[in-house]
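Subject: sequence -> structure tokens, single chain

Hey, anyone have a minute? Need the predicted structure for the following. Not urgent.
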Amino acid sequence: MGKGRSLTAIYSCVQAPFWMSLCIFSGFCAVYLQSLGYSNAELGIVLACGTLLGSLLGPWLSSAIDQSTEDRVTASTVMPPVLAAEAAALIVLMLLPAKGIVTSAAYAMFIGLSTSVNSLNLRLYTDGLYSGYQIDYGIARSMGSAGYVVTSFIAGLLCEHISPRIVPAAGLVICIAQYISFRRYSRYLKEEFPGTGNSSEDSGDTANGTSGREALPMWKFLLSNKRFCMILAGTVLMFFAHNTLCNFFINVVRNVGGSTSDMGMLNGLMALFETPVIFFYSRLTRRWKTSSILRFAFLMFTVKAAALAAAASVGQIAAALLLQAPSFGLYTGGIVVYVNHTIAHEDSGKAQSLAFTMTMLSNVFASTISGHLYDVMPVSSVMWIAAAVCMAGSILAVLGVKTTKI
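Reply:
Had a minute. Here:
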């Protein structure tokens, strides 16, 4: 057991490449596929299929790990084949850079497998805490945002001055980095995490203890946690606006006279603005409860969506993205801590995975619905529709939050 040793720095190296990968497969999806001749609706379908795959695969893997009583089924053993399959999809994209069914399928696989990696990363986090290590999730996650910033700036410049076809090559480099950082972190974990209710000390800043029972099947878990389900449903609606922007960022930027490099800069700024809030999240909880922080963050999602819909220039978009800090930044720092303190360890894997997966499920709706709307409606109209959907989600999520002790 870790006996209080900090793994924050090592876990930060796990977080960073995942969010760098997300920047590539999501932030530059439109840039890459449009360069191959895809329309907004067509690339939206690819995004939706890939995200749906990740939305199913991530929770399924987490649930299987929660319920497994065998050491061979853990986040540490499942991660390598997932990353290997992701690398294979990227190699196909590099070898066959042309519009068609192969590219569509390979890119969807890239998205789905990349997405599911975060479910495993979150399980690695709870396993680290369960082993007795100290991990400040806010600091580690902020390194992910920092990696996203750097990736967005560099990828934007490379796509603008070289070719959008560098996207799969960049994804492959990051995939290799993910594997290296995962291997380093996993050496510290004992392969002893079946969902059997083994007792452990509460690691303080950290994970909920076990309840002395076996992990619940997914359907029983959802029925037993109705208010958590309200948060999940609200998350889908809130992130519809977030993904309507991020998946088609190039459309929004071009609508106000910007370029691909402007999009890369704005994408990087968005992650940059959220980073300090995530980094110092643990300090915020010394003054405010996580439940209060989450409620505030949920409401700020709607404020941000409205501000982006009203933006009429690159500068105004940049100003609106300042609201990324009190919305996405606070949510990202708070949701993992909230789940750890309201859900037992036996079910923590699936709960963490579901929380993240709802943002990806929202991606499915944004990709298909907004992709079509961008082809038939003005960009500003699409953004206002997304803001209205976001408001409904904010209200639902706020109502679902339980008051926490921390």
